[in-house]
Amino acid sequence: MRQAEHIELAIKPKPAQLSIHDWIYSEIRAAVLSGRLKPDIRLPTTRDLALQYRVSRGSVVTAYEQLIAEGYLCSYTGKGTFVTKTLPHNLSVRPAVATPTSPSVHGALSGRGKVFLQSPFYHDRGATAAIPFKPNQPDFEHFPLKIWNQIGSKRANAIRVRDMGDMDPGGYLPLRTSIADHLRFSQRIHCLPRQVAIVGSAQQALDLCTRLLLDEGDKVWMEDPGYPGANMVFANNGAHVVPVPIDAAGIRVDVALQTAPNAKMAYITAAHQCPIGVTLSLERRLELLAWANQGQATIIEDDYDSEFRFDGIPLAPIKSLDSTGRVIYMGTFSKLLYPGIRLAYVVLPDWLTDPFVSAMSLTCRYLGLHTQKVLSEFIADGHYARHLRRMKMIYQERAQAFETACKAQLGESFYINPITTGLDACVLLPSGMDDALVSDQLKLGGVQARPLSFYGIATKPANGLVMGFSSFTPEAIWEGMARVREILEI
Amino acid sequence: MRQAEHIELAIKPKPAQLSIHDWIYSEIRAAVLSGRLKPDIRLPTTRDLALQYRVSRGSVVTAYEQLIAEGYLCSYTGKGTFVTKTLPHNLSVRPAVATPTSPSVHGALSGRGKVFLQSPFYHDRGATAAIPFKPNQPDFEHFPLKIWNQIGSKRANAIRVRDMGDMDPGGYLPLRTSIADHLRFSQRIHCLPRQVAIVGSAQQALDLCTRLLLDEGDKVWMEDPGYPGANMVFANNGAHVVPVPIDAAGIRVDVALQTAPNAKMAYITAAHQCPIGVTLSLERRLELLAWANQGQATIIEDDYDSEFRFDGIPLAPIKSLDSTGRVIYMGTFSKLLYPGIRLAYVVLPDWLTDPFVSAMSLTCRYLGLHTQKVLSEFIADGHYARHLRRMKMIYQERAQAFETACKAQLGESFYINPITTGLDACVLLPSGMDDALVSDQLKLGGVQARPLSFYGIATKPANGLVMGFSSFTPEAIWEGMARVREILEI
Questions:
Q1: CATH number of the domain encompassing residue B438
Q2: pTM
Q3: Domain that holds residue B66
C-alpha cells in the first residue's frame, strides 16, 4: 500500500453554508470521484487532518465515517484509512452541485413522450385574474365558499388513525353514492355506486379508458373540431384518431361509418359539442349505440357542462339509453364547481369497473380523501343541487347579456351559435377574418378569446372564437364587448 | 299520417319513486325505443292522456315537452304530437334501468389493458386493521395527528377565490421548495424547486417517466426480485423488462451490461433493495452512472424509505453523484408519513422537467391543493424533520425487537437479512419450506407475511417472507412471533 501522508489534500476553503464535517466529506469525496485520490491510497489520520486544517477531530471522524459507510474509504484497524480499492479507476464523475448539463429534450424523449410536450393545459399555470372572455371558467364569486370552508375545516380537523391507511382506488364510497343518486334524478342514469369511479380530472379518466380499451393503431372517432385534451390523450397512447365532421345535429355518424366502421371507440360531447355547442340529435345517438353494439365498440360521453342547460331539463345522456354497457359517461366538478377542486368522475359499464379501478391503482393508487369527503358532505346536504340551480340562472342571464352585447356591439356579421348550455359561446367571424390573428390581436388589447382553429383536428374549422361569459357580470360583458369592438376597429 | 288515438299506450302502473311526469316520460320513451310506438305515429293529446290515466294535464305536458326536447316526439301546431319520423325503424335499444349485460372482460380490453388487471395494489382496498406483520406500513400511533389536523383545519378554512382556479401542474411551489431544501441537507441532493414535481404516488411518477422515456420494446433493467409496482408499469407501457439478478451489493450491473447493454432505463432501489434489503455498493452506483452516461440511459432511483436508515446518516443517493442529468430520484410521503396522504415527489433532471410537467397536465392536470399546503406548512415548521427523527428511533427499536424475537422464537434456521433501513424485514425460510404456502398458512392463523416469490420476475427467489415490524410495539412483535411459531409448529 502506498503512503498518502505527504499527499497534499488540496482542500478548498470552507463555504459558509457547510458544516465542517460536510466540508471535509465533500472535498474528499470530490477528490476520489475526480481521480485526484486514486484507489488504495492511504489518507492522513483524522488527528493529522484535524491539526492541518485546525478543525475539531470529531468533525473529521464524522466525515471519514460517512465516507466509509458510503464506500469511498475503507478502514483497517492498525493500518489506517484508504481509498476503496475496488472503485473504477477512471470515474469521470463529478458530484452534482451546479445545474446539470442538458441533453437535447427531443433526443432523449420517447416517440410517445414527444406528444406530451403538446399539452393544451401546460401553459395554464397558476390562477390568472379572469379577463374577459376567458373560456371554461366557472364563476367563483357565487360559490358558497363559506359553507365549503366550514365543511372543509371540520373534516380536516377530524382525521383519525383509521383514515391514514390505504383506501379504495375507486374513490370514497359516500361520494360515489351521492353522485349515483344525483345522476339518477338529474340525468336519468341508473348506476350502482361501485360503477362510479372518482378521478382527479376528465383527462385522467380519458387516459385510463384509452389504455384499457385501445391498443396501438386502434381507431377512435373524434369530433372535428373537437376537444384537444382528448385528441392528445388518444394520440399519445398510439390510437389512430379518425376525425369526423360535425353539423347542426352533432357528429356525422354516417361519415364515420363510411370512413372507419371498425373503430373501437367514439369520443362524443353529446349534450354540448365542444367547441361548437350543438346538441347531438336522438337519431344520431341511437345510430352511435347501434354501431357500438354491433362492433363491441365503446362510446365515451364527455358531459362537461350539461347541468347548465338553459332551456329546461338537461337532455337524457346517451348513457341513459345504454342497456348493453357500451357507454362510459364522464363528468367533472371543475366546471360545475371550481377547477381547483380537482375531482371528476366516470360512470363505467359493469364489466369495466374492476379493470378501471385496477388501472387507477397501478398508475395513481388513489386520490386523497379530504376533498372527496368535503364534496360528499356538500352534495349530501343539498348545497350542490342548490348551487347548480342558482348558477344556471346566473349563467343564463350572462349568456343573454353576451348575445345581446355581441349583436349590439359587433353587428350581424359576427354570428353567435345559439347558447343553450354551459359556460362559453362560440362566435363565428365575418369572412376574411383569421381567428388566430384576431385572438392574438385581442390578447394584446387585454381580451381573451380562443380561436376555433385551436380545436381543429384534420380540417381547419370556420373562423371563430370561443369566448367565456360565465365568470363575468353583464356589465363586464358589455364593457368587454365594447373593448373587442375598439380593438377590432369595427 | 296514421291516427294513434285508438292505440292503447299500455302504460305500466307508476312505480312509487317516480314522479308522474317522469313515469309518463319513461313509458313513452320505452315504447318508442322498443318499437311499440313506430315513427310517425300520432300520440293522444295531452288532455286525453291525462283523462285516461287520471293525472294532471300539466304533468303530461312536461313529459311531452321533455320527449320533444330529446327528439323522441315532434309537435306540429294544429296537427298534434307524433313519434319522430327520422328515428331508425329497428332500434332494438332498451333504456338502461337494470344492471347491463356484461361482455367478457378479456374480450373487451386492449392488450395493454389486460396487464392492468394484475395490479398488486388493487386488493389493498380500504384500511385494514394492522395485523402482524403487515409490511410497508408506517406507524400511525406516533404521527402528530393533532398538529396535522390543526394545520389542516386552518388551511381548509382559508380557501379564497384565488385558490379556486387552475394551478401549476408541477405542484404547489412552497411544497416543492420545502422538499428541495430538505433533500439538500438530508440526501445531499442539490436541485431547484422547479426540478421537484409533486405527484400522487410513486406509481404515477413511474408511469409518466416510462411513457416519456420509453417506446414499445425499449429495454429497462429491473432488479430481480424487485418491486412489482414498477415491473407492472413497465410491462403495461410495452417496455421490455430485463430482469437482473441481485447479490449482497445490489443489482449485478455486470450481468445487466452483458445481457442488455443498450437498455434505455434502469429501475434501482439503491438505498434499500426492495425486497431483499441490501444497499447498492458505491462501485455499482458508479458503474450504473457510467453506463447511463455512455448510452444516454436514465436511472430511476426509487428511494422509498432511506430516511429511516438506522446506522447513521442515510447514504448519499445516486442522484447526488449525477452531474449529467441521468438520474430521476423519487420519494414518497406514504411511507415516511402515512399512506392516505397520497403525496410523493420526483426530482427531475433539468431537461426532463418541462416534459414531465406537461405530461402530468395531460394525464392528470394537477393534484388538489389542500394536502400540499398542509404538508408544506408541516415541513416548514419543523414537524416533518422532528417526526422522521423520532420514528427512526422507534423503528430501530422495533427492528431490534424483531430480530431478537425472530431468532429466539424461530431459531437459527430462519435467517434474517440484516435490517439497516426502513419498515420491513426479509426473513429467509429453512430449506424445504415454500414461501407461498407458509404465507397462506400464516394468513389462516391471523398473521400477515408476504412471500418473496411475490417479488420474483424471471427467477423464483429464495423462499422467504417480507414482514413489517414498523407498526407494531416490541410486545406485539414478540406475541406475533410466538404466534408464527405456533402456526408453523416449530
A1: 3.90.1150.10
A2: 0.90
A3: 4-108
